[in-house]
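The records we work with from here on pair a chain with its fold. A complete example follows; check for yourself that the lines match position by position.
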Amino acid sequence: MGLPRTDRGQLLLVLALATAVAVFTATVPLLRGWFDLRVYYGTVDSWVHHGGRIYDYVVPGTTYGFTYPPFAAVCMLPMTLVGWHTAVVVALLLNLSALALVLRFLAGREWRRHGWFRCAVALCLLALFEPLRDTLSFGQVNLLLLALVLTDGRLLATGRERWAGVGIGLAAAIKLTPALFIGLLLVARRWRAAAVATVVAGGATALAACVSPETSRFYWTQALWDTSRVGRLAYVSNQSVQGILARLGETSHPVWMLAVLPVLAVWVWRTHLAVTAGDWLAAFALTGAAACLVSPITWVHHLVWLLPSLAVLLRAGRRRVAFAVYAVLCTSVVWLWFHDASGIDGFLGSNAYTWITLGLLLRLPVGQSRETLPPLNRSVSSTAPAPRPAAHAIAPVSGQSDSSVAAAAGATTTGPFGEGRSASSEPTGSTLAPAAKPQSSSARASSYTAKPPPS
């Protein structure tokens, strides 16, 4: 039985699929209860209305509080002007807007080639992507930061570099993980953009220090270095190199630093290949993957930084690989080893998402040969030579069942930053009582349990 060919049949199928996805998302994996948003909201509310200190606040019934740099709290001050339910609605709208912007950057105008039906199916399938659905239901900021970073990526890819670096600088001031993208600018020898990003990040940090000097001093001298404030390193949601080591019983910082050095070396090498070929999308995708690997703690919802990698795979025609990566990242498979990650199966299974991220860093396609593209130190202009068709978007797919599904899943991820050109937490729903954040809880936070974990 094939897909419906009439508009009415396609509309009915999309509505049925959207309903099934909504029911699944709300019931099977369980919503995260806006846990991280509760941390943000409670922190700034305590700070402004009750004279509390940012890093002293913890969510009632848990041991978890604010862990971001002080500038992030300054950015969240507008939440003190609205009630909780309004904050939830605004956070959801901001995340959806950021997602739309990210997909626009990654897909460009090529989504029109697939038609509304395949794009609607793709959005339904994307809603099942575990890092994305967790980001939305936690009320996290990952998508907003990704949109800021990719804005700079698009500026660089299209030769409009005057403001490049601002997005990366702001993202790095809000959360430390995006700071690796400043390293990307250095690898690419985009000195001006790197300087802009550094100045913006430094200026934002200085602004926060002016607003609350004692808070900034405490964060940069104490809170930053205390990983226990974020959660247990060995918790199965931590899909980073440090998470692998912690589940093996090794938590020393020197061992972790030695382990991430080869990762950084591979990242520099492959990113240099990408930017030399003028493939900015691949360069940003590689940096997102590397940031997830080298960060001491990379919760599952942080893996939205892998969305550009899926776009690169689809652009390169690796549809089956892209769909396989997507499918595994929809399964919550790592939670099968929540209680016991010992043995070979535990070593492989509990770190499944980390292996995928490492594989992307090692094998992600990095664009065309150098001879077919402008030199790295030249920006795109209206007189730049046209790139080879192979670097453009995926051709329309028809008559192939597996390709049709893959194309639908990736219909929104073609073209480098939308130009088609190259150039140099809480697991339970709102009906359950508040519980400890799943990233560091001692009980399972996944679709395999209906109980909130103990705090």
Summary: DSSP finds 19 helices and no strands in the chain.
